[in-house]
Amino acid sequence: MKNQINHSKEIMWQATVSCDSSYDGIFFYAVRTTGIFCRPSCRSKVPNCENVSFFLNGNDAQNAGYRPCKRCRPDLNMKIYDPLESLVKDTKQLIKNKYVQNLSLHEIASRVGVSRFHLNRIFKERTGYTPRVYLEKIRVNEAKELLLTTNLNSTEVGYRIGYQSVSSFYNAFKRNTGLSPSQFRAYRNLNNVNQELD
């Protein structure tokens, strides 16, 4: 088991260079030239050894004048911080809150602070969907809810959930459910089945 006190600078430096997450929470490293401190697992560019100081806790680093890294968030009180998980969570929340707006992938990526390419790749790796497909699923679930709980017609439902044309709504709905919006409403009313929506 690693000892918090008896770490040589060489061991801590090796853990920093190799981004060893097993040392997260045991020490932090700070870089004089940037004024930032990080977790050992941080994927930031490896600094020059002579510019690095080590601290046993984040408060000591902050008291010494260093700011927490925005990538690895050493200021958060958690053993392991997964920035990619936070990116996915923020993206999902943004899409859920703004699904009615016609947000482009570029706009979504810009709001969560990464490139379109990076967001598309990470989001698909973590969820199995691209942000656009996830947006479509959110919209279709909202459409199902409206079809079952209101008297709005299919066209009105499509516009209400953010589609700019009836055909794009119809195609998205059929792609996700296998039914047209009117078939879905008729089928559900006929069977009167209360299925829980995702």
Task: List the keywords.
4 strands; 7% strand; Arc Repressor Mutant, subunit A; disordered N terminus; methyltransferase; 2 domains; Homeodomain-like_sf; four-stranded mixed beta sheet; 198 residues; 9 helices; disordered C terminus; Ada-like_dom_sf; transferase; DNA Methylphosphotriester Repair Domain; alpha+beta
Task: Describe the fold and architecture.
The chain is α+β, with helices and mostly antiparallel strands and about 200 residues long. It has two domains: about 10-70, DNA Methylphosphotriester Repair Domain, CATH 3.40.10; about 80-198, Homeodomain-like (Arc Repressor Mutant, subunit A, Orthogonal Bundle). The protein has helices at about 10-15, 60-65, 85-100, 105-110, 115-125, 130-150, 155-160, 165-175, 180-190, and strands at about 30, 35-40, 50-55, 65-70. Strands 3-1-2-4 form a four-stranded mixed sheet. Helix 3 (about 85-100) runs parallel beside helix 6. The longest helix has 19 residues, at about 130-150. The chain is elongated and about 70 Å long. The protein starts with 8 loop residues before the first helix and ends in a 7-residue tail after the last helix. Residues about 1-5 and about 195-198 have low confidence and may be disordered. Pfam families: Ada_Zn_binding (PF02805), HTH_18 (PF12833). Keywords: Activator, DNA-binding, Methyltransferase, Transcription, Transcription regulation, Transferase. This is Helix-turn-helix domain-containing protein.
